């Protein structure tokens, strides 16, 4: 797993889905996603000076996730991956599970198949061009 210790909340992704980790200033393809912005404001030191974790998202596209904290790579015991309660799972498609660490801290395991790049088109959009 790749773990990001964001000051707002820790989050993780499966290491096999990570394409690369680069300085945020080097990512130019599309705007990097800050999935935590809905949960808490971005720290002032924010992602501009930080890094992005580039992962394979929906449709195999590369999606950059803002990593506003320290990054660690490590194994996680399957017993430490907890399923979300149904109510949370239905309302949070970007979160697959909760990981408990040995120090009792928690991390959100992101569901990468739910991630889309901000520049992805709406399904069917290419079939129904605008009449304007």
Sheet with most strands: 6 strands, mixed
What is the H/E order?
EEEEEEEHEE
Indicate the proportion of strand residues.
25-35%
What is the rounded distance between the termini?
47 Å
Which radius of gyration do the C-alpha atoms yield? 16 Å
Short description:
The protein has 132 residues and is mainly beta. The chain contains 1 helix and 9 strands, in the order E-E-E-E-E-E-E-H-E-E.
Written account of the structure:
This protein has 132 residues and is mainly beta. The chain has one domain (2-127). 5% of the residues lie in helices and 33% in strands. The protein has one helix at residues 86-91; strands at residues 2-5, 10-13, 18-23, 51-56, 62-67, 70-73, 81-83, 95-100, 106-110. The chain has a six-stranded mixed β-sheet with strand order 6-1-2-9-8-7, with no helix packed on it. Strands 3-4-5 form a three-stranded antiparallel β-sheet, with no helix packed on it. A hairpin with a 5-residue loop joins strand 4 and strand 5. It is globular, with a radius of gyration of 16 Å. The termini are far apart. 23% of the residues are buried.
């Amino acid at each position: 797993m790749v773990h990001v210790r964001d000051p707002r909340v820790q989050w993780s992704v499966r290491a096999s889905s990570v394409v690369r980790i680069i300085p945020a200033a080097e990512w130019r393809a599309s705007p990097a996603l800050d999935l935590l912005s809905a949960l808490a404001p971005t720290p002032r030191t924010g992602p501009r000076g930080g890094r992005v974790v580039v992962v394979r998202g929906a449709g195999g596209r590369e999606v950059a996730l803002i990593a506003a904290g320290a990054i660690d790579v490590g194994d996680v015991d399957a017993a430490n991956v907890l399923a979300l309660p149904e109510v949370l799972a239905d309302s949070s498609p970007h979160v697959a599970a909760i990981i408990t660490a040995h120090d009792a801290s928690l991390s959100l395991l992101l569901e990468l198949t739910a991630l889309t790049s901000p520049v992805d088109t709406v399904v069917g959009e290419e079939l129904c061009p605008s009449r304007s």
